[in-house]
Design brief:
Layout (H helix, E strand, L loop, with lengths): L7 H4 L5 H14 L2 H17 L4 H12 L9 H9 L3 E6 L7 H19 L6 E4 L7 H9 L1 H4 L6 H24 L2 E4 L4 H18 L6 E6 L5 H15 L3 E6 L4 H11 L9 H17 L4 E6 L3 H13 L9 E6 L4 H9 L4 E7 L2 H14 L6 H20 L1
Parallel strand pairs: 1-2, 1-8, 2-3, 3-4, 4-5, 5-6, 6-7, 7-8
Helix pairs in contact: 2-17, 3-16, 4-16, 6-9, 7-10, 9-10, 11-13, 13-14
The structure holds flavin-adenine dinucleotide.
Flavin-adenine dinucleotide (FAD) binds next to strand 4, helix 13 and strand 7.
Length: 397
């Protein structure tokens, strides 16, 4: 079957013309690099000052990229996506709230989301960030000092703190296994990633014995991650569990490069976009080659990579809706890929964050940067929206 991502009628069937016009205005605004740069710096500050910016954010960027301020508010949207055979990955999008009480609260929220998802027809997976329930500086320390992990702890307090992180992670994964919902562990900055990887692999060993419950994220914009994917698979094979893996290019490129330069170490990021693309596509091939004991989520807005995955599936005679193959795009982006993959019969979802506006600001700022004209995404999204608006205008003329 030939899949085309050009069909905007399919892509935007769930959006009213008014909503599309709103999206057009937003993407046009994000096309101004200077506006995005100023906005990314100013918005978090404005949020703190108590100035009335909430309303403006709610009606514009929040509406485009976020499912609602609470779990319940995501329901109508999830139901609408379901009508088009699109699934949902719920993401309780709180970032940056530190402190043990906040961490315990976030853990309970993740558990609530799992219980809620288990009762919905089209929410097979939720996503979590370990920084939602672990202190960033602790993760960084563990990343830098492997001996802390091997049981030779310098500070008893930190050892206890790390044990609480493990318990939180285990409580979440245990609940996920009980209710039959998957857990995606997001990847974040490279300087905290090692303990996140280790903890996630530990959870996979425990809970992925029959099927994938826990998924790690592999960022192929890092030049060491294809080897890490192969290593993860080797560990899964030797310990007899299913490797759950979400493939992404990665969201923190500028921050990674800037830190490496500032601190004088070699950048972990691939030297060119082409190198990221090559490793991403190689990773798709690797996972599909080992699909018997790998469950893969191809998380990308790149048309060629998504097409490549469907071509490999076809070549290998694997069903588009193979239970171990799932596609995903962020809500608010690349509907042309999501809805056309759904139409072709693939397992595909929208990654749908929710949470109070002030808590999802870091996520929104990453989306603004990703959709600024520097990245080239805006032109593509705008072109698709304009094409669909023109098509609809032709229908009423
Ligand atoms: C469902 C979903 C979940 C995600 N979860 C995570 C996550 O947990 N952690 C995370 O970090 N990211 C995550 N991402 C990825 C991230 O948010 C971006 O959406 C993604 O990196 C954009 O790349 P793309 O695959 O859509 O393809 P493209 O638009 O083709 O590629 C853009 C990406 O290529 C890379 N790139 C661009 N220029 C260069 C260059 N000069 N050199 C090297 N590399 C370059 C960057 O990663 C950039 O983001 C997720 C994405 C999706 C869709």
């Amino acid at each position: 079957m030939n899949i085309s991502f050009d069909n905007t009628e399919v892509a935007f069937a769930y959006k009213s013309t008014k909503e599309l016009k709103g999206a057009k205005f937003l993407f046009q605004t994000m096309a101004y690099d200077w506006f995005v740069k100023v906005g990314v710096r100013l918005t978090p500050f404005l949020m703190k000052t108590g100035l009335p910016v909430h309303g403006l954010i709610r009606k514009t960027i929040f509406k485009q990229f976020v499912g609602g301020e609470s779990l319940e508010q995501t329901a109508p949207l999830a139901a609408e996506l379901g009508k088009h055979h699109v699934q949902v990955i719920l993401d309780y999008g709180v970032e940056g709230a530190e402190g043990e009480d906040n961490f315990d609260h976030a853990t309970q929220e993740f558990i609530k989301v799992l219980e809620y998802a288990s009762k919905q027809p089209n929410i097979p997976i939720i996503s979590i960030k370990v920084t939602g329930f672990a202190r960033f500086a602790l993760l960084q320390k563990l990343n830098e000092a492997p001996r802390l992990r091997s049981g030779i702890h310098d500070h008893e307090a930190e050892e206890q703190e790390w044990n609480r992180v493990r318990q939180r992670m285990e409580a979440i994964c245990k609940k996920a296994a009980e209710v039959g919902v998957g857990v995606l562990v997001d990847a974040e900055e490279s300087w905290i990633q090692d303990p996140v990887d280790r903890l996630t692999i530990e959870m996979m060993e425990k809970f992925n014995t029959q099927k994938a419950v826990v998924y790690n994220t592999v960022q192929l914009y890092r030049h060491d991650r294809y080897a890490f994917l192969q290593l993860s698979h080797k560990i899964a094979q030797s310990k007899n569990f299913i490797l759950g893996v979400k493939l992404v290019r990665g969201a923190y490129m500028e921050k990674e490069r800037a830190r490496a330069q500032e601190k004088g170490y070699p950048s972990p990021i691939q030297s060119t976009k082409d190198a990221s693309d090559k490793d991403f596509n190689k990773a798709i091939g690797f996972c599909l080659e080992h699909i018997a004991n790998t469950s893969v989520i191809i998380a990308s807005h790149n048309e060629s990579s998504n097409l490549l995955a469907t071509e490999i599936l076809a070549e290998k005679g694997l069903a588009f809706n193979h239970p171990n193959v799932h596609f995903s795009q962020l809500f608010g982006m690349s509907d042309n890929i999501t809805f056309n993959l759904a139409k072709a019969g693939c397992n595909v979802s929208k990654y749908l964050p929710f949470g109070p506006i002030r808590d999802v600001i870091p996520y929104l700022m990453r989306r603004a940067q990703e959709n600024s004209s520097i990245s080239g995404q805006t032109g593509r999204e705008l072109g698709l929206i304009e094409k669909e608006l023109t098509r609809r205008k032709g229908l009423v003329a």
